Amino acid sequence: MENRIDDYLVDDIDLEDNRKLIQAIQKIKIEWDCDRDYFESVKEELLIDYAIFKERATRAKYMYLLKIAKEKGVSLQYTIK
Question: Could you tell me the residue range of the domain that residue 24 belongs to?
């Protein structure tokens, strides 16, 4: 079996269950918001690098899950923060 990065990103998410997919998207969106807030508050240089890395990783996972939802025809409604 081939190990793919997308398998790693979503190893704990049942992508066949639309309800669980939506819950995962909502959860990762909250995490992404927290990561952005953390980036805005951190002052130490090494922590800034970590905050950038974490925010980008979380954003990538969020975007990937949105792509899966779109491919499955699952629609979501969000209020932009």
Answer: 17-72
